[in-house]
Each structure stands twice: as structure tokens, then as C-alpha cells.
Specification:
The protein has six helices and nine strands. It has helices spanning 24-32, 34-37, 48-60, 108-122, 137-145, 184-188, and strands at residues 9-10, 14-17, 69-75, 81-87, 95-99, 127-133, 149-158, 163-173, 192-193. Helix 1 crosses helix 3.
Length: 198
């Protein structure tokens, strides 16, 4: 394993690496895109200054931690970020991802996520979860391609947009405990249920 707390990963087509201060323009392109950010809790950034603040708070500070799975997705041809993969260090081990629309439908997010999941497994992360808005089924399809399985749904008032959203929770156990289900969302939110045929 590389010494970095966020090792640079490579796949057939991609470089999956840390964001750097030189990526502010790319961060702005990613996090200002309204279509890509439609199903995310935060509002799109509106300036390069906001993108730089996002970098310093969400990335530079995270990279000071012992292990930070905060990755930029880049094509090998130019090493310019076109999306991201995050894996939280909280108990949920929540996997999040995003990609700007010109690159949708090419399997790029799946390829990048698989590399990050492989790194997490190597680092003995026991499981990962991921959630998606029921109105954004494409994210659920990515989760299925990663080998994640649907566990349950729950309703949450999502901030800061203050939207009432039904989320589907998926999970992938990376250790020997194949029966484990992360129950925090089920326990926290009174409206929870299992959908048939998901």
C-alpha cells in the first residue's frame, strides 16, 4: 500500500486521486452543474471562490486525517476531474458519487467506485452503504452494479433544501459477516419500510 492516506488508484480508463488546489476550476464545473446536483442535499456552488472554500473544507481538511476516501475521478488522457467518489469515515461508511452529465452512461462511476471499494477492502473496511433518492433510480443501478443489495427505504427531511425525500439504502459487506445490515436510518426515521421488487 502506498504511504498516502488517500492512495492514487488507477483503472483501465481512469485515475482516481486526491483533489488538489489546482483542481478549483474542475471542482466548480462539477459542483455548479445543476443537473448533476439535483439529487444532492447541498445547493450548487455559484463561483470559483465557493469552489475553493468547498475544496478547503471538504477535501484539504479531510486529507489531514489518517484515512480519507475523498477521490476525484479523472480520465487518464488529461487527469482533469470530471466527478468524485467519497466514502465516509462515519459508522455508515456511506458511499457517494457524482459525475458531470457529458460522461453519463459510460460506466465511469462504476469503474471508479470499484477501485475505491477494492482499496477499502484492502484497508479492512468491513462494509459500505449507499443511499439514493427514489426519484434518482440511476444511482440505484450503479449500486447494484457494484454488488450492493437493497435493504430498506426511509423518509427524511433533507437539509438544507428542506425536501421530504424517500431514500433507498443499499449495502455491501466486505468482510465475512454477510448478514449484517446497517440499521441506523431505519431506527432514526419513523417512516421506514421495505419495498418489493427493488
Amino acid at each position: 500500500m502506498q504511504a498516502s492516506n488517500t492512495p492514487r488508484l488507477e483503472t483501465k480508463r481512469l485515475i482516481v486521486r486526491k483533489f488538489t488546489i489546482d483542481d478549483i476550476q474542475a471542482l466548480y464545473r462539477i459542483f455548479s452543474d445543476r443537473e448533476m446536483n439535483a439529487f444532492l442535499p447541498w445547493y450548487p456552488v455559484t463561483s470559483l471562490q465557493e469552489a475553493e472554500k468547498l475544496y478547503r473544507v471538504n477535501y484539504a481538511q479531510q486529507y489531514q486525517q489518517r484515512r480519507a476516501y475523498q477521490y476525484a475521478i479523472c480520465h487518464k488522457s488529461d487527469d482533469i476531474p470530471i466527478g468524485y467518489v467519497h466514502l465516509s469515515d462515519t459508522e455508515s461508511r456511506d458511499l457517494g458519487f457524482g459525475l458531470i452529465p457529458p460522461f453519463w452512461g459510460q460506466g465511469i462511476v462504476t469503474e471508479a467506485c470499484m477501485a475505491v471499494i477494492a482499496q477499502a477492502k484492502e484497508d479492512n473496511v468491513p462494509y459500505i452503504t449507499a443511499t439514493h433518492d427514489v426519484n434518482n433510480p440511476r444511482s440505484g443501478e450503479v449500486m447494484k452494479r457494484l454488488g450492493m443489495t437493497y435493504r430498506y427505504s426511509y423518509q427524511e427531511a433533507w437539509q438544507p433544501k428542506n425536501l421530504l425525500v424517500v431514500f433507498r439504502m443499499y449495502q455491501l459487506n466486505l468482510d465475512q459477516d454477510k448478514e449484517r445490515t446497517y440499521m441506523e436510518y431505519w431506527n432514526r426515521y419513523p417512516v421506514h419500510f421495505i419495498e418489493e421488487g427493488v
